[in-house]
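Entry 14. Ran structure prediction on the chain below.
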Amino acid sequence: MVSGYYSFKANIVDKIFYTEEGNKFPQTAIITLYDKNDKVITSHDFGYIDTIEIYNQIDKNEQLNFDYCYIKNFSITTYRRLRLLDKKEYVSIKGISAKSAFFDSNFNIDFSFIKITDGDVNFSNTHFAEGELNFNNTHFGSSKTDFSYAVFRNDKVDFSNTIFGDGGLIFKNSIFHNGTKDFQYADFGNGDIIFTNTEFSKGDVSFINTNFNEGNVSFKIARFGEGNIIFHFAKFGKGQISFERTEFGDGKTDFRTVEFNEGKANFNRANFGKGEISFEASSSKQGKITFKRTNFGKGSINFELVECENTDVIFDKATFGYNDVSFYNSKFNLLSLKSCHLDNYLDLRVNKCNTLILSDTIARDIIDLKPYDFKVNINTLDLTGMRLLGCIYIDWFDNEVKQIIYRQTKTSLKEKADQFRTLKESFNKTGQYNDEDRSYVEFKRCEAKSKLLETDDKSKVHKIKRYIKYWIQWLTFDQAGYYATDPLRVLMAMVGVYIIFSLLFIVIFFIGDANILSATSAPALTLVERSFYHSAITFLTIGYGDYYPVGWSRVLSPIEGFAGMFLMSYFTVALVRKILR
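Output, structure tokens:
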């Protein structure tokens, strides 16, 4: 039946109406639908049943059958008043079938405080046309409840405090028009809950304190309009939870303090609008929550204080819109933002995270990992392939940067080198020059080891040459001065090399044809004094000429002269680099 009409008229005629199942009604209701210009869109025939007759069926404890019927002003509250019952006394009904029915009311369509004692409840393809719809405190029994393809044109739909049985609930392809939809404190039993492809339109939708229990829950391809969507304090069980490709509209989306428990929650390809998005203090005992390719729109995004210590939360290829994103003081087993576009401030000062993945991301603003009022506990950080246009606020020691990179088990040395280089560039932008030096050293070390170990060279000669080259570079560039980042270490290396050469001059005097002779008439020096003096003027390339080498000392002297010149140049580079920064 058409749902997008402006008005309708009901005309009751004395004409027998037969349903598809063969049920007979003495009167027919002709429902005519009109557009804004009072032009007829279409008309449909329904069987007509009077509410007094329905109330009599309730008295007889008969199963109510409204299939293909037009019902005007149905109200359980009115029934209780007529039967002198308390206004909140439950009315027992054996079962309800209102398939393809048409409900109309001048006030409320009221099913509140009823108990279904036997049989299914079927409102599939039913049209709730006028008046507020009230299922408040209804107990639907243990069988299936079906609202699939139903149309709700009511200003308010109230399912608060409703209890559904374990047979499942279906709202698939149903359409709600503008107005509030209230499922607060509802209990959905252990059956599957299906809101697939449901149209919620404008108005607030509330699932506050709703208990979804152990069944699967599907809001797949559901569409919410303007208005707040509130799941505050809702509880899910072990079933699968799907919000895949759901349209959340422009209102506030509130999943604060939601308990996802052990179910796997899927928000993949969902679209959020302009409103605030909050998952603050939500929790999951064990499972997975995914937001792959999700579009978070233009609202602020709050994942603070989330408790997912044993849960993987995945945002791969998600788009985070135009506002800040915060994971402040949250706990995750794995938090993955792989291949995301991060255009705004991202607060990743998590309380605990076993694995944090930022690989292949494009970051245009600040990524904040720097501890402030508590320790940021991250076991492994993956920055592989990151395109950093902004900067990362992180501390080398407080965040244990070296350890969280080296703990990666699935990345190569080359990939680790690229990550240290990314951090080096970030430290430079934030003025953390000492941390920049530390990152640069680890970058060069990983790069050198990568070339050594990851090169496929079958020739033993070439392999030996490669190892010799590596160890020479390790000794001269790494150990001598940490790749020109530590002038004091270079100075200490100079002193060490000078002492070694001085001692070598003494040693070769005893084991070979070697000596250091005086070219002047100055007082003679002892062997040790000559060795240390000659080593000093050779190392520093002074060259007074008052002592000169003989024999094997002539071989050792130019080697020391080259080493001294090299280390002095190395020291100069390291010192100037420090001063200029």
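The two ends are 75 Å apart (CA to CA). Will compare against last week's run tomorrow.
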